[in-house]
Design brief:
heterodimer, A: 269 residues, alpha/beta, Rossmann fold, eight-stranded mixed beta sheet, globular, B: 66 residues, alpha+beta, Alpha-Beta Plaits, two-stranded antiparallel sheet, 3 helices
Chain lengths: 269, 66
């Protein structure tokens, strides 16, 4: 038996899922489903699109219209789906490697277009599925299987990237504050335009072990210590800002939505 | 209020992977891990806050039923 929520929105026959013990992805996925339940959306009116990676296995467990696409191209497929049927609530589930490395170009152009898609990035700071290679969000100096002496690259701030590219709703949360994820996904779905929600997850198997971060509980406690609300962060001195994870609603604006503009072109003939 | 009283903790052992997240974040220390699965240690202390369900990555523990 599973809870009412899981029973209604999951393909329960495929549980238990493939994610490792202590992986944060399951927490985020439940939060997304809870947000959809809170909004009372019809299951047939929701389309979940995912790419490739640990996070992207999520679409297979959900009982909506779901598409599991190619690596990095979830947003490209989602754009097509939204164009073909603008009434659908299109939700993209993607990972940090999927959205920032392989699909980085799709991310900036989907944000530029401001198409009504809600994107949720499961950021676990590493490529989990392929064996722990460092990703664009692995913090500088941290280790991966392809960076055994520490990563020398600067890590991406995905929220800043999405904001600069033109997303109209940008927010960040961690799996410690799972209720915040629920609120942000609700806001993201309600926003008429491109919504970008970065959720900080944990990978105890690769990232945790490689960097001696301890077990899943230790890693969640570290997220708790490191995360700080945006208003409190803005008041901090420059030295104290180092190593903090800024959570909360980071950006909100209004701009014309892409499918609406396209509809105007169609109507003009 | 009525539904609140009726709810109890349910554990689905087949889904539990024994990560211990629910045990650590339970504010009342109700749960424990035995043989790599979650068990209820002290049900009388449970305040039915639902934090275990909120943070269980494997959907193995939840509030519901009677």
């Amino acid at each position: 038996m599973v809870s009412q929520l899981i029973g209604k929105y999951y393909r329960t026959g495929s549980l238990p899922h493939i994610w490792c013990p202590g992986c944060g992805n399951g927490i985020i996925l439940r939060a997304i489903v809870k947000a959809i339940d809170n909004l009372g959306l019809n299951q047939d009116d929701v389309c979940v699109v995912s790419g490739i990676g640990c996070s992207s296995r999520a679409s297979g467990y959900l009982d909506f219209n779901t598409v599991h696409t190619t690596h990095g191209r979830a947003l490209a497929f989602a754009t097509g789906i939204k164009f073909a049927n603008p009434d659908l609530h299109v939700i993209v589930i993607t990972g940090d490697g999927d959205s920032a490395a392989i699909g980085g170009n799709h991310l900036i152009h989907t944000a530029r277009r401001n198409i009504d898609i809600t994107t949720i990035v499961f950021n676990n700071n590493i490529y989990g599925m392929t064996g722990g290679q460092y990703s664009p969000t692995t913090p500088t100096g941290e280790k991966g299987t392809t960076a055994p002496y520490g990563n020398i690259d600067a890590n991406f701030d995905l929220c800043e990237l999405a904001k600069a590219a033109g997303a109209t709703y940008v927010s960040r949360s961690t799996i410690y504050g799972a209720n915040m994820i629920i609120n942000q996904v609700e806001e993201g779905i309600k926003n008429k335009g491109f919504s970008f929600i970065e959720t900080i997850s944990i990978c105890p198997t690769y990232y945790g072990r490689k960097n001696k971060k301890g077990n899943a509980v230790d890693m969640i406690n570290q997220l708790k210590e490191m995360s700080i609300n945006k208003t409190a962060y803005d008041k901090l001195s420059k030295e104290k800002r180092n190593g903090k994870i800024v959570v909360g609603e980071l950006h909100k604006s209004q701009r014309t939505e892409y499918t609406e503009e396209y509809e105007k072109i169609i109507q003009s003939f | 209020m009525d539904t609140f009283v009726k709810e109890k903790i349910n554990i689905e052992k087949e889904l539990c992977k024994g990560c211990g997240i629910c045990v650590s974040f339970c504010p009342k220390n109700v749960l424990t891990i035995k043989n790599e699965k979650v068990h209820i240690k002290e049900i009388d202390s449970c305040i039915k806050c639902g934090l275990c369900e909120l943070r269980c990555p494997d959907y193995a523990i939840y509030l519901g039923g009677k």
